[in-house]
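Entry type: protein chain
Record version: 2
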Amino acid sequence: MSRPELQDSLKFAEHYTHPDFPLYKATSLSADADYSEAIAFFVNGVEDDPQCQNNLAIFFALGIHYQQDLEKARTLLISAIELKLPQAYFNLGLLEHYRLIPRTASTLHRFTSALSLGIKEASYYLGQHEERNISHADFDGNAMDRSEAFGDARVRSLRYYAVAADVGHVLALTRMGDIYHSEMEVRDDALAMKYYSQAAQKDHLPAMFSAATLLTRGYSPRLSVTETDKSAFYIHEECDPERITALQAIIIEKTRDPEAAITLLNRAWNIHRSVEALEMMGDIRKEEKDYRAAGAFYMTGMHKGSITCLAKCGEMFLICDEIRSKTIARDLFKQFKTRLAESRILNPKMLELTEMINSYKEALKPIPRKKKKVDGDSDKTAE
């Protein structure tokens, strides 16, 4: 059985290994490494040592050294749980959460127990559970009741996420950034930037993209005329809305830092080879009207297989005087349309690029050549 594509958070299990093997505690397990000596140690203690049971379960779950056997991993983790090993609660909860093995009525309890025993990363999954309450609960009563129920569940989820974020859990940090960036009730882009930056420092790709976006656009703390709202930046109540809006605009402009965004995205490209990072760097340079630099990013992305970079690179061959070529632009636009038809991807971004290409229809028309006059074609003089 082949090793499944596992989400990053499952790899936390790889860090909870036996203290006699600090190498494995500090680094992720590798499918190519030789763990024979460590496994022999774990097998020798599997009968009564919960750490050994937990560690062997990790090898079976990930399909390293052994053929993947999720049921064997489950059995070993249950044995370790019976001996009250905190990591085992967490690891079994992960396998069930990501449905690598069937969920049970005890799945949520795994994380609650792990948290109570000191595994703070488990708090992220309890926050996820509260978010499902927000999205799926069928609240009774009027709109005010629903609003209060939503607010209570959101407060609980943020409290759980904060516990996991405090120990550097990148998914919790990123989720807190998303909440503070997108939900109007608590929106605070400055606070979102704080969480995104912490996750980005750990090279978490979604957080790197989100932080780069805020650096490009600028960000402001949440403003409020309520002095008791301690989570917001206090604005005196005599300030009129226009002055508050002007103040926000100043703050946003001062926090814009496209070069810092480029540095972050360049790191995302170097570490993750993310084509989206190339496209975002191209977009930043295009906004600065540095079309040659933008074209270089788009072209690299195009060669790495990006459909969107095909269209954007074609546009650079029309608007950049140094590399202007209608022939190349026309060919790249044609490739984009062919690839788009083959992929059957239809989303707002692709529609926007299609409209962009159509807007250049007139500019792409070849200039008609003047006909050369042939001898004898001159106007005859009247007799």
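Comment: The chain has three domains: 1-117, 187-272, 284-362.
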